[in-house]
Amino acid sequence: MARGKEATKEVEWRIKVEEDDTLKSKVVGCMWAVTAGLALKLCKFVKKAWELGVNDPRKFIHCLKVGMALSAVSLFYYWKPLYDGVGGNAMWAVMTVVVVFEYTAGATIYKTVNRMCGTSLAGFLGIGVHWVASRAGEQFEPIIVGVSLFLLASAATFSRFIPTIKARFDYGAMIFILTFCLVSISGYRVDELLVMAQYRMFTIIIGSILCIIVSLVIRPIWAGFELFVLVTGNLDKLANSLQCCVAQYFDGSETPDEDSDKQLLGYKCVLSSKATEESMANLARWEPTHGRFNFRHPWRQYVKIGASMRSCASCLDALIGCINSDNKASDEMKKNMRSISLKVGADCASVIREVANTMRKMRKSSKLDIRVTEMNSAAQELRSLLSCYPNLVHNAKRSTQTETAPSDIPLPAKVEISLMQIVQVVTVASLLIEIVARVEGIVEAVEELSDLANFQPEMCVKSKQHSPDSKISPDQQNDEETERTLQMV
């Protein structure tokens, strides 16, 4: 019996040890699997971050600029003479750098100016209200502070709904409300508030100036140039989409390749760029002179050009919707309008590309008027051909009525089929004519830009460049640098 019990205990011990080993192996396996999964996700994240930095190195440079500005402003803590000068308020300089340093120079200047103005105005008003309330006595002090806080905060909040103030001083109005609340309801005496306000304004100004210097000196990213690249690039995308759409419809390409499909959908970037264009135009007005753009460059005109492009792109979207509808026109119907419709689409695309080149070179094109005339002539020819379609429909009805219809298909149904085949191609032609009118709107907006920005005629520039004694002008050098930058972007 004793030997049996010992054997049983030994078996139980072996089973328990084996179970413990199995549990440990499972736990270790799960830990390795979790660790491997986290490492794999980390590698993917690092790879995506690296690709993002390689595709646009300016983002990486911006990160270095922010780190440099924060490192410089941190000297207020680690360099004793600076710390003794500003005291414990050095944190406001650090907060200013964190809050106002933006990707573009225009956004940084916009936030720094708004922060300094909003803080100064709210600080003076808050100290004044605090002084009046403290002199009125303890009974009236909360009433004066509460009423002033209600009136000024309400007025500043309402001002943010005014379009002009919202575009230029929205951030400053928000800072005004915050600073006024902090100063007016603080429990300090007036003399203490003056000293504290002096230190804080000093540190905020230092942090703001440091942000502006770093943003403008070290590889600046201009909001105006970003807007310029965006608008000119959208013009090219719109031209490619228009030409590709007409070619695919009339050439009968049922399965377009990836490149043509990408060109066809390029117009959607135009439709979704309104908010970006308006934001960049507002920020560009804060930037100093850079490159070929003067301080008073008409940035708002780029928004008008973008609106004209969206009007054309919306018509192109309707054209693509008509082409993709279920009511397909026959090849015979397309054949009547194929050549002239392809010419209209190509001429429209050519005009849009010429407008884009005009904006890139900042020179009045000598070919633009010729291309617009050719586009209008092709549109008039398409309009004349379109006016002949009622006769074709009438002839189709007469030919259908003279034919002997099968017993299972009634005669009006055959006439309806002929009409439905005509409807699509006529609609496509009508939309092409409408697109021509909207392309003229783009041309008018660009010509207005050329007048406001004082673009020189292209012929005058060419004559200067081809003169034997002339050297490379600064404008020509800037053109070459801009074209190289556009290619990199």
UniProtKB/TrEMBL annotation:
The chain crosses the membrane at residues 60-79, 91-110, 143-162, 169-187, 199-218. It comes from the Eukaryota. Pfam families: ALMT. Keywords: Ion channel, Ion transport, Membrane, Transmembrane, Transmembrane helix, Transport. One of its GO terms (cellular component) is membrane. The keyword Cell inner membrane does not apply. Residues 463-489 are annotated as: Disordered. InterPro entries: ALMT. It is a multi-pass membrane protein. GO terms for biological process: malate transport; monoatomic ion transmembrane transport. It is found in: Membrane. The keyword Disulfide bond does not apply. Belongs to the aromatic acid exporter (TC 2.A.85) family. This is Aluminum-activated malate transporter. It comes from Phaseolus vulgaris (Kidney bean).
